[in-house]
Amino acid sequence: MDWKLNETIPQEWQQDNSGVYTLIYRTDKKSSVSKVRVDIMTTDDKPVQSFVGNPEDLRKNLMKYMAQFNISIEHASYIGAGIVKASLLSDYVQD
Questions:
Q1: Of 59, 63, 80, 91, which is least surrounded by CB within 10 A?
Q2: Is 1 within the bounds of a domain?
Q3: What integer pLDDT is reported at residue 65 of this predicted model?
């Protein structure tokens, strides 16, 4: 297989049918060790489950749990990006 560098093209968001969305934010705004919280919500804004922890463990536990909702790869990567942003930016909130 030959290596090739592909330039990306703009893509529209493709909403999946998971029926959930996430609220993502950092819980320890003044600590040097980042802890992030993810609240899983139904589309009618009812809480389903919440997770809190360091970004790496949070991502792994969250993806295992979220598998039951059949989230798309795009949705999973978007959640992962939100976890990273929250771990780096003390005032970040993704809703």
A1: 91
A2: no
A3: 93
